[in-house]
Design goal:
The chain is α/β, with parallel strands linked by helices. Helix content is 32%, strand content 29%. It contains ten helices and 19 strands. Strand 15 and strand 16 form a beta hairpin. Helix 1 packs parallel to helix 3 and helix 1 runs parallel beside helix 7. Bound molecules: flavin-adenine dinucleotide.
């Protein structure tokens, strides 16, 4: 069976590697680049998915939550948060897929023609056959567009890399800095990645940090239930399926695990959506509910509750999946 995967980010590269153990897999990636991202992910992902640990640039055992004049240190109960450099992380995942037998082409999916995928490689349009196609082509999925499916619900983010060294991640929940969601600072060796949602919030955040920098904009999915993740022999995974955790906006962990669910479903001929729902639906719905509360006047209270040890422990255990929700 021929499997064609469009997009070699965390989701596509993982699906490719796992499926290559059984099938003839081709992976199409448009370019090597540093995807706009804080690069923060749960450290347990590396053991769970056998990812080389030398990709971890920082191991963090605490973070800060900020709201108005309140700053709360959250102990992560060990070095549970990893920071990766996306350019290196994504490229390594693609290389691991190639080692497993995947054929990797640098090219761009354009459209479908007579049940084949049209891929542009070095300005030449080539038709690729497939029995199954996996769209792992991110939040702006061109496969979704080619199939006339509604686009992924999303919000804009603005981000920049600045010359500053910080020790750990900080999250800022004031509406002026983080809009409906939050603003963030993530350590990246001798730099810091900063971001917020809309441009006004980002500009306010820069003023607050006393810096001047030009941001880049990029979308991030805002998950909703009932997004199409399969149409006949075409499957969607990662950002292309909106599999980003509400509230935290963690996408790397869920893209990689969703790719594993998809690969297992194809190999074992199971229903992908059912399998994904079994594993993640409750957690995503619960976090969507928390996200909604954060968008009301209860936001301040929710954050201030983290002054209490029991609330910090609850949130960290929830993040680490130590509870069934
Ligand atoms: C500003 C920002 C900060 C973030 N910070 C974090 C964070 O700290 N932690 C976290 O877990 N998540 C974070 N996320 C979310 C995370 O980046 C994504 O959820 C994650 O990258 C999803 O992986 P993916 O493989 O599904 O998609 P992507 O990483 O987007 O990979 C898709 C790949 O497909 C390629 N592609 C697209 N179109 C085509 C085409 N037509 N043909 C061929 N190739 C194509 C792209 O080049 C891309 O490499 C952040 C997102 C943003 C925008």
């Amino acid at each position: 069976m021929k499997i064609l995967i469009i997009g070699g980010g965390p989701a596509g590269a993982t699906a490719a590697k796992l499926l290559a153990k059984k099938y003839d897999v081709t992976l199409i990636q448009d370019r090597d680049w540093d995807k706009p991202c804080g690069g923060g992910t749960k450290i347990k992902l590396f053991d769970e998915m056998d990812i080389p640990k030398n990709l971890i640039k920082h191991k963090l055992n605490y973070i800060y939550m900020n709201y108005k004049n309140t700053k709360i240190k959250i102990d992560l109960k060990g070095e549970n948060l990893a920071i990766v450099k996306r350019a290196e992380f994504d490229k390594t995942l693609r290389e691991l897929a190639v080692k497993q037998g995947v054929k990797l082409y640098y090219g761009k999916f354009k459209r479908f023609k007579e049940k084949k995928a049209v891929i542009e490689i070095k300005k030449e349009k080539i038709l690729f056959n497939f029995d199954i196609l996996i769209a792992a082509d991110g939040v702006n999925s061109s496969v979704r567009r080619a199939l006339n499916l509604p686009p992924i619900p999303k919000t804009i983010t603005h981000y920049a890399k600045i010359d500053k060294e910080i020790e750990t991640c900080e999250f800022y929940f004031d509406e002026a800095l983080g809009g409906k969601y939050y603003a963030w600072e993530f350590p990246h060796i001798n730099k810091t990645h900063i971001g917020s949602v809309d441009k006004t919030s980002f500009n306010n955040f820069c003023k607050f940090l006393n810096i001047e920098v030009k941001p880049k904009g990029y979308f991030i999915p805002t998950w909703q239930e009932n997004i199409t993740i399969q149409k006949n022999n075409i499957y969607f995974v990662g950002d292309a399926a909106s599999q980003v955790m509400p509230m935290s906006f963690e996408g790397i962990y869920y893209a990689i695990h969703s790719a594993k669910i998809l690969a297992d479903s194809i190999i074992n001929q199971k229903d992908y959506k059912k399998e994904w729902n079994k594993r993640f639906l409750k957690e995503f719905k619960f976090m969507k509910f928390i996200e909604k509360i954060h968008q009301t006047k209860l936001k301040g209270l929710m954050i201030k509750l983290h002054k209490f040890e029991y609330m910090r422990t609850f949130s960290v255990n929830l993040w680490l999946h130590n509870y069934e929700c």
